[in-house]
Amino acid sequence: MQNYPKDNDSEQYNRFLNNSILQKAVHNKKIAVIGLGYVGLSLAAFLGNKANVIGVDANKKKINSLLSGVPPFYEPKLEYYLKRAIRNGLTFTDQINKEIVSSDFVFITVGTPIDNDGKIDLTNMRDVSANISEHMINLKNRPSIIIKSTVVPGTTMRVIKPILEKNKLRESVDFDLLTNPEFLREGSAMQDTISPHVIVVGGSNNESIRKLTNFYRIIYKKKQDIVETNNVTAEVIKYANNAFLATKISFINSIANICQKLPGTNVDKVAQIIGMDPRIGNQFLKAGPGYGGSCFPKDVQALISFANEIGYEPILFDAVKNTNSLQVNAILNLVKHHLRDLKNKKISVLGLSFKENTDDIRESISVKLVNLLLRHKCDVIVHDPKAIDNTYQVFREKIKYSKSASDVLAGSDCAIIMTPWEKYKDLKEKDFLKMRNPLVIDSRRILKLSNRKILYIGLGIGN
Ligand code: UGA
């Protein structure tokens, strides 16, 4: 797999966005993006800088906020591109109507969560598809309906297509139906949207596939790899991609837990060297508290349920999921080992978002850890540069919140680094010496502390 491009500076972005080829290619195209989460909003903000784009989301509060140029979540560079796109005509609405559906490209980017049984919940997808179908009756043009949301294999043709066709409409005649999975990461959503490492377009006929790939080819100036395939393969690719990355993380976390017990070893050294083998690759080998977020946990689970449903026992994916669920215990066990009795101990948790550069705490391992610490009757105080508001919605007054990464340490019995925010790397030894008991558990091994008064434990470093 090609490396993700390095983060570009604004100057490079501007040069790209002012590119006349991009302007010409998309200027006359009408584009609708339905579902304005990380994927939909990044896409709308990117394409909206030059094309005629309308974003749709059922959440009125979100729409009002977006109309004034304020993103509903923190994502680097999003606000900048959003405001620019709004000046270029990007607009938003909470209603799907005929005009929206008659766009050249209608991207569906609604959420596909999992239900209580661990199966994919297609409610949003079904509702939006039914709504689109109603408004497609008697259309003069033939819109391309593009499924960007992550859906289990077979969904586009077996679930979405019949809904879209229900008003006597025919796929490939009245509309085209494509599967175009997204690979962007939260925290670098704009960068990944502007420079995707691959574009996968799945469809049922060459004409419909070409319409979209030609559009992408001009936007991305032929630099990107554009892969044409059928809908179901595109759906499998998305799950395979996420499941493989999740597998790498559970794998390296297992190695970290072994290193933890072997004095003289460091999981980062092991990862660095095995990563030099091109068959392995050096990315996604950072051991830590386990993967979180709105994608890997949900997608691995949905793949497990799907595999079971079609009669395949997914032993490997079960192991990936279970390894991930148990990884938080590696951290808790270190706390217990060094503090013995946890009752009334003051524990500082640094980092609440599931990864750096986002305020998203969905499936964050930090939230799991705080819950475990509360169960052990600890006195928990937390810090995060962006995710305090979201965390407050979960724990309210059950824990304390600190505005400063240094103050959160004062009087503490143990500090746990959970999210590798850049600013935590700037913490000095004197900050940790403010602790009552300077025990530091670094689940991401981002600190370098050598003061003898500080007991530094890096997850995956044997001592
Ligand atoms: C992930 C994929 O990386 C994207 O390609 C995909 O488009 C997205 O899911 C999706 O399906 O929507 P994301 O969840 O935003 O993106 O974040 P990642 O950077 O993949 O991180 C996921 C979790 O894995 C985080 O908790 C992170 O801390 C953890 N992680 C990642 C590790 O513990 N070690 C690593 O080496 C890498």
Identify the overall geometry.
elongated
Low-confidence stretches: 1-9
Work out the helicity level. Answer: 40-55%
Q: How much is the radius of gyration in Å?
A: 24 Å
Mean pLDDT: 94
Strand content: 5-15%
Structural class: alpha/beta
Instruction: Name the strands of the widest sheet in spatial order.
Output: 3-2-1-4-5-6
Q: What oligomeric arrangement do these chains adopt?
A: single chain
What's the β-strand tally? 14
Bound molecules: uridine-5'-diphosphate-glucuronic acid
Terminal CA distance: 35 Å
Please give the count of helices.
Answer: 17
The main β sheet shows up as:
6 strands, parallel
In short:
This protein is of the alpha/beta class and 463 residues long. It is built from 17 helices and 14 strands. The strands form three sheets. It has a six-stranded parallel beta sheet, sandwiched between helices.
